[in-house]
Amino acid sequence: MKKTKGWSGHPVCKKRYHFVIKSSCDNGICANPHHISDSRRCKCCNRVDDVDVEEWGYSQLEDNNTHLLHGVVHSNGYGHLLTVNGREGGSEFLSGFHIMNFWDRLCTVLSVRKVTVMDVSKKYGMEYRLLHAIARGHSWYGNWGYEFGSGSYALTQDAYKRAVDDLSNMPLSALLFQGNKSRTRLQNIVAFYQSLSCSELSTFRDLFSFLLRLITDSHKASMPKASKMSKSSTNVLCAWTRNDVEKLQQGMIKVLMAAAPGPNWVSRRALKGVMCKAGSPELLDYCLKHLRGKLAPNGKVVEARSNLNSSDIEFRLQTPCSLLYDSNCPSEEHIKGDLRYMLDSLLDPETMSAYRPYATRERVMDLATKLLDCKQFLKDYKPNAHNPCAICVWCHLELSNPTKDDPVPPPELIILPLSATVGDLKTEATKVFEDVYAMFKRLQIEDLPDYGSVEDSITLKLLIGTTGSVRVRGKCTSRHGLNRFRMERGTENWTVDCVCGAKDDDGERMLACDKCSVWQHTRCAGIDNADAIPSMFICMRCTKSLHKKSLTITNSGKEARNFSQQLNSSCRGNLGSNEGSQVTTTLIVR
Description:
Structural class: alpha+beta
Strand order of the largest sheet: 1-2-3-4-11-7
Radius of gyration: 36 Å
Largest sheet: 6 strands, mixed
Number of strands: 18
InterPro entries: MS1-like_ubiquitin, WHD_PTC1, Zinc_finger_PHD-type_CS, Znf_FYVE_PHD, Znf_MS1-like, Znf_PHD, Znf_PHD-finger, Znf_RING/FYVE/PHD
Keywords: Metal-binding, Transcription, Transcription regulation, Zinc, Zinc-finger
Number of helices: 17
Protein name: PHD-type domain-containing protein
Shape: elongated
GO molecular function: zinc ion binding
Distance between the termini: 53 Å
Domain PHD-type: 495-545
């Protein structure tokens, strides 16, 4: 994650607190300033550096994606989570889950108010916000309470939720129907994992969540434990007796014995076809899933493996000493490869294959694009403002001489003793807003608009109780010299009016029209993200306006020529009686 978004409309805070967990000694500079002595020799790694401690500190706050954690909190309690790198990002000991747990607890202890994150995370080389939204129903950061913040291209929270639900519940049946045509690689892979699962995989969510679960389980074992298998298949097993299962499996073993002269593997599909009349398809699937490890009458054991080329499980009989343990489950790397292939082929708009039906493909592409366009997530920590031994007041600041460009700062929590007066509130509110925001230097709180001209000596508890919110109004005597601190995003004004409906900067790539200076997304203007921004650009509105003017000028020219021809004809007809007169025609084209 490298973009910061969310609090650009707030006034500039005086302080920002950065929280960084370095990965290791990298970039040629030691990561620990306390180990640098006066001789610039690191006591930890014995490296000699010519960088002083102050320069080292500033260098850590630069745009650096090697940090395990980088978060920043403004002095008003609003923050950004900039970087999280787990084991795939270079962490030797901490996973991304552990780092996020630490960050979440830290924000809670510090009473942080709201934190944004720009989710551009990758997992196994894939867009994880797309994969996790389909498999779990929310982004990875949703595990810690981060919810939809704002969407790019004017997408709303309702549109995001609908896209998650519709894409997650998209049925796989339409994709697996091939009629008389041979199966594609995509269909083979989907059918393969359906055969591995003890429960039905009927939707995109079922499929991708199952693969993620297999990857997690592969860290412990290649196949699910027997206890897990028994638990997940209890409802299936109750439909048949143990004798039904054993009888059918013995028939399968006889088929494998017939193919035994030589290292002949029998595919799951072929074995099921031979035994199709011996039981129901559900019973056959159950027996095949638990066939590995069964003992044959000749003393051999059923071995199973995953065929990477056909995406199917194969069986054969093997002596126990040479049996490959749990070989019917694909390896972790193979599962990741299949997951990446399915995500690229089924969901990623950039690499999606031309599968059928085309209507389903277009629908999937539209929904996946919406999920990828929603990167900004937010968590509201809702700090507890209740204290029975004090007055807790949220103060909303208003300026007595406002302008249209003035920002509206978020309310600040003021904590006062129970005996505090209105004057105490004004004094403390003035101090808090001055300490937090740079533009409110020399602020003077004058009154409480909701309570009229109330005396400063009035006990505050009589007005608002021990908790509540109040508007305070004041003025800044040195305000004009501090206008550059008016907003975090800067004082430069720009206009965003894109055809997608966006009216403000959303972090996506934009360009401005060279005629009207209005900004819009490059993608909405038909410019691919991989293409360079043209040196000259005229938006569609200006193009249409110029086209209309061109048509007006053309039509006016035709009317003028017709009028001139008629006038000349009339003049030639009257030359005999008006030889001395002069005729002048003037044409004004607007």
